[in-house]
User: Which sequence fits this backbone?
């Protein structure tokens, strides 16, 4: 049973479009949430942390809904350079130990 | 600038060889992880460690072992490499967020 569900896409959108990704998680004790971006043949890199109050960075907005146990990422005014795979990550803490659970990744292609 | 370093970026090994993949982090993190990533399969956890000399199996530990003798170094060992272990291997460590190494591309022929 997968603990973090993420729509794998692919999402193909024109430049300038708004696109949204969601992830649902099953463990209500999950404590930290992130969106990572991964380019082809590269390591994942942190895009945004996700908070219940929402987090906005330029064209990107991330949101956490604890009641419904999902996190979202909204990209406005898509650019060609936004083409990548977007991974959601959930972290659970137990003392000093960390358990990481990744979504399977959503592939985004922004078309000219 | 925080860093997770995977010293071997591209390796080609023969079936049956012993392979060492090294990962070093400079952030004094307690938690370190080894993943492999294959097309269409996402990140799969091989082993992780939450302290020196501590190790825990992940989802796909078969054919692998690990070593954590020092806090900053977490090594992945393929005791006898097989062709189905051809993959990209990613090391990660966690503080408040997750930091990845650049990946080690292993081809077993």
Assistant:
């Amino acid at each position: 049973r997968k603990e973090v569900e993420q729509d794998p896409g692919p999402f193909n959108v024109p430049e300038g479009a708004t696109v949204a990704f969601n992830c649902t998680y099953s463990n209500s004790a999950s404590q930290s949430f992130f969106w990572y971006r991964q380019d082809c043949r590269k390591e994942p890199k942190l895009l945004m942390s996700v908070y219940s109050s929402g987090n906005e960075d330029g064209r990107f907005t991330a949101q956490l809904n604890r009641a419904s146990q999902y996190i979202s990422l909204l990209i406005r005014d898509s650019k060609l350079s936004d083409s990548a795979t977007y991974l959601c990550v959930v972290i659970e803490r137990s003392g000093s130990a960390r358990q990481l659970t990744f979504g399977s990744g959503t592939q985004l292609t922004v078309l000219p | 600038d925080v860093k997770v370093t995977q010293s071997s970026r591209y390796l080609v090994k023969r079936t049956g060889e012993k392979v060492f993949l090294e990962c070093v982090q400079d952030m004094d993190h307690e938690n370190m992880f080894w993943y492999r990533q294959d097309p269409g399969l996402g990140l799969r956890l091989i082993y992780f460690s939450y302290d020196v000399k501590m190790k825990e199996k992940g989802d796909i530990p078969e054919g692998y072992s690990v070593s954590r003798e020092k806090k900053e170094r977490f090594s992945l060992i393929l005791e006898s490499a097989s062709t189905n272990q051809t993959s990209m291997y990613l090391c990660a460590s966690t503080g408040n967020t997750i930091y990845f190494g650049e990946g080690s591309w292993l081809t077993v022929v």
Remarks:
- The mean pLDDT of chain B is 95.
- Chain B touches chain A at residues 30-31, 33, 42-43, 45, 50-51, 88, 90, 92, 94, 96-98, 100-103 (CB under 8 Å).
- The first strand of chain B starts at residue 4 and ends at 6.
- The two ends of chain B are 37 Å apart (CA to CA).
